[in-house]
Amino acid sequence: MEWLEQILPQLRLPGRYTGGEVNSVRKDPGRVDCRLVLAYPDLYEIGMSYLGLQVLYQAVNREPDLWAERVFAPDRDLERQLQAAGRRLFSLESRTPLADFDIVGFTRQHELNDLDILAMLRLGGIPVRSCERTDAHPLVLLGGPGASHPEPLAEALDAVFVGDGERALVELARLVGELRRGRAGRRRILEELARQPGVYVPSLYRPRYSAAGDYLGLEPVGDVPAVVRRRLEPDLDELPAPDQPLVAQVQTVHDRLAVEIQRGCTRGCRFCQAGMINRPTRQRSPAGVLRLLRRGLASSGHDEVSLLSLSAGDHPCLVELLELITSEPGHPVAASLPSLRAETLTTR
Predict the structure, then answer these.
(1) Which of these ranges, 113-117, 150-154, 324-328, has the smallest mean pLDDT?
(2) Which fold has domain 256-344?
(3) Pair 240, 58: CB distance under 8 Å
């Protein structure tokens, strides 16, 4: 894309848009059955700090028949350039416009992402409303913590996934790829998706109201589940996890290796959404954490690891884990615990 090379000197941080990071994945588009782009509705340096993006990127790209690329919300300088030149927002790996993918998968971290999701659709050449899309357009999928309450964005979404996505995204991408290659229409693809665990298709449900006009809930239209139940993975050690993390081109918010040691939380704080939607609590074993740490450090060059959890001190093997990490031979490793409750501190 010669146009991009020409405008890069005019951008404040051109490394946000060039791709080519260490451990990024390139594939032959003609040899994969489904192409999806993982869309993070915020700036590159924020999205590249998000472990969930790394997890899904590597989980999908392990599969030879699937290819996951990335796109982040552009800063105002690139947005102006795109609009002035009549260009579309593109992926980092192949610089493909968003409208040319099979799936555009957004993560919704919080409600402030909503306007960026709509802006990225518009910049990518995708109609903002789902009802205006044709069979030629990609499916717009929403995930992340904000997928638990997607109704404010429902008219813009083709499907919403609720729950643990490491295995589910691979399955959904493979299903969409098979159906699109088989010339299935958009309606049929959405109906098939709606039958998968954890998938909500807004266009296949309608609201119910009382005689007084009070909202009573959603009811299905056609042969789809009346209740969408989140997808739950019971064992973290059995899940694909990033052992070859992407190394960003520019300084990120969290510039270190991240390893998830625990999902969910035992505390039940009523103000904490993450503690509620990620129940039950599941731990990764010390051996599993150490394996990811060794591979991640070797493939990335990081010298600091962040042990991620909603409450790291509640991990039953935390002390053992820290002793193993700090005694690793040949490589001084600094460990950080970004979420630690004071009452879980010990003298060791």
Answers:
(1) 324-328
(2) Transcription Regulator spoIIAA (3.30.750)
(3) yes
